[in-house]
Every structure is written in C-alpha cells, then in structure tokens.
Amino acid sequence: MTALPPSLISTLPGGYYADEGVFALEQAKIFESMWFCAVRASDLGRPGAFRTVQVGRESVLVTRARDGSIRAFLNVCRHRGARLRTEESGEVRHAFSCPYHAWTYDLEGRLIAAPNLTGMPDVDRVAFGLVNVHVREWLGYAWVCLADDPPSFEADVVGEVVTRLGAEEPIGNYGVDDLAVGRRIVYDVKANWKLLVENFMECYHCATIHPELTEVLPEFADGYAAQSFVGHGAEFGENIHGFTVDGSQGVDRIPGVGEDQDRRYYAITIKPQVFVNLVPDHVIIHRMFPLAAGRTIVECDWLFREDVVGRGADLGPSVELFHRVNVQDFEACERCQPAMSSRAYGRGGVLVPSEHHIGAFHDWVLGRLGAASA
Ligand code: FES
Ligand code: FE
To answer: Any idea where the Rieske domain is (predicted)?
Structure first.
C-alpha cells in the first residue's frame, strides 16, 4: 500500500473487527481486566433482586445482599459448574439454589446448604462459596471487575470523565446517581464494539445521517465532535428550546446543572464500553455488552429527575431524539461490519483530520492487546 499523505492516518486493519481470535484477546485483556459498567443499581431494588450480564467470556450474577450492598459473583455453581441463573433478571427470597443438585448459596455467596452429603467429609462452606467479582458503585451503576487485582477505579473510570470535562464537578452537577430510568431500549447490533466506539467519537458522519441531531446542535453539521475538545459542550441552535426530536421544550432541568452547562450537550466515552451524554434535563448512558467479533448488545438508559418520571411527564420527544440517533448510528456500523472481512479493507481505511483522535483509541486498543502496531 502506498504511504498516506501526512494529513491522513489509517484505521486498524479490517481483521481487528472481524477476527474471533482478536475478539478473544480483547475479552481477556480488556473486558475481563478493566472496570466494566454492568447494572443500574436501581434495577436491584431490594435484597435478592439480581441481573446476569456477560462480561468478557464470563456470565456475572449481580445482586443486592441483605445489608443493601451490591455483590457480584461468577454465575457458576461450585459443585459441577451449572449456571445458577439463566434469566437476565429476577429475584430470589434468601438464596440462590442451583437447579442441578440444589447446592444453595446465600446473597453474600456463601454455600449454606448441600443436600445428602452423608459419607462425605464436611464441605468447606466458604471455600466452596461463589467466586467473588469486585464491585464499585458510581453514577448509579454497579461497575464490576474480573481481575484479581483491579486497576484504579479513580484513574481508569473517573479519570476518563475528568480528562474529557476538564474537572470533576461538571458531571457531579448532573447528580446522575439520583436520576431515575425514564426509558431503557436494548439494541442488538450486528457490529464490532470498536466500530461503535469510533462512531461515537466522531461527528464527520453527523451531517449525512443525523438530520434531527444536527438541527438541535448546528455545529455538528460541520463534522466536529464535542469530545474532540476538552471541556467543550456543543451549543443548542438558536430556535431550539430543548434536547428533543423537534426542538421543543424538554422536561424540568436537573437542579445542579450550571449556567454554563445549560443549552449544551456533552459527550464522553468511558473506555471500554460506556458512552455518556449530558444535556440540561436528562442524561443518556449506553452500556455495551460485546458478545462476538460481529455482535454487540447495547443497553441505553434515559435518566431524568425522579419527580419528572414519577409524575408521568411526557418523555417521548426527549427519548425519540437519541433513539433515532442510535438507530442511525447502529445501522451505519452494521453497514461497515460485513466489509471488515473484505480484501478491500485488509489494510484498513483512513481517518480524516476531524477523526484523528480515533487514532489514539486505536493505539490504546493495540497497547492493551500487547501489539506493537497494526
Ligand atoms: Fe450445582 Fe450440582 S452443579 S448443585
Ligand atoms: Fe452518530
């Protein structure tokens, strides 16, 4: 391949998006090694409520213990390895009982009962408890880490947000912990997770595929993504009253949002699998669950003030704007995915200048995988 002019840099080769071997390496070195945003804490309303989520190659059971804290375990019975729960969510009263031979674990993961063990020496109830997974709560989500020795949450997760916004208080102003889920939509996207990250990072495509979004945020029509510049929030257009599909007034503003954050949109990527969008009256959080090289489940939450959700305010115009953006973006990613295996993309494509910050993401991926260069 002839060298690109210096104003252009190349993307990762197509194989990075299609090869299951690369994906397996990413599962080990990225999703099973870093903090992973797993579950909205409010989905675990009371002790015994649980969710199962896929983190790398592992199924993780996240639940609320009797003391109110969130616990996470590998979803694997210690006896002969049965999946304890196969549903995505549910609730148990006191304990998880394995459907195979009824070994039973309390909400703290200790083995509390194993029937018919006569003739067998005592089974150590702690040693044969469920395997613990590290948990941290932030922004109202349970973040889990499968590493034995997790990396610093402050540096890797909080630090990503601070780097993007320039300080810690801007996200604190939105009180994301206390917001309520007004709407959740789950998307099953037939594309590699990195295509989704790259798409979220750039706005070169905005003028082509996001007519509603560029109406609300006119600067996006010029192709510059809000997250290319530290602390920059894209300003609403002159005749725009709210971050809604038709520019109409949204719902009640989040109380802590500062004057400088009003009428502005901020976008943040928290590597490896979270996108955060901040607007004055709601917050949109995407969590990706990569399942295969070519398949990613995205759970998208629209978070509003609790009183707004509680009184049944019309969230439709607010939700519809970013739902359309999601559909437009995911269709674009699905359009690219099959071509990642084409000879035409064997050496990858090109990043134009307004996409150059995506190059840093590629370097980060390669660094995690221990690869020197693409
Ligand atoms: Fe769970 Fe036997 S595999 S009790
Ligand atoms: Fe987009």
So the answer is: 36-144
Which atom of ligand 1 lies closest to the CA of 77?
Answer: 1
Ligand 1, atom 4, residue with closest C-alpha: 101
- Say which ligand is closest to the CA of 113: 1
Residue extents of the structural domains in the chain: 6-18+167-373, 34-165
Tell which one of 103, 105, 120 to mutate to probe ligand 1, the residue whose CB is within 8 A of the most ligand atoms. 103
Q: How far apart are CA 193 and CA 190, in angstroms?
A: 9
* CA of residue 202 to ligand 2 center, whole Å: 7
CA of 333, nearest ligand number: 2
**pLDDT tier, 119 (very low <50, low <70, confident <90, very high otherwise):** low
6-18+167-373 carries CATH number 3.90.380.10: yes
Rounded to whole angstroms, the Cα distance separating 207 from 214 reads: 7
Instruction: Check residue 222 and give its pLDDT.
Output: 86
CATH code for residues 34-165: 2.102.10.10
What lines the ligand 1 site, CB under 6 Å? 77, 79-82, 98, 100-103
- The verdict on pTM exceeding 0.90 is yes
- pLDDT at residue 373 tops 60: no
Of 184, 189, 204, nearest in space to 352 by CA: 204
**Span 110-114, average pLDDT:** 92
Compute the distance between CA of residue 55 and CA of residue 284 in angstroms, rounded to an integer: 21
The CA 293 to ligand 2 mean position distance, Å, reads 21
In whole angstroms, give the CA distance from residue 211 to residue 241: 17
**3-class SS of residue 223:** coil
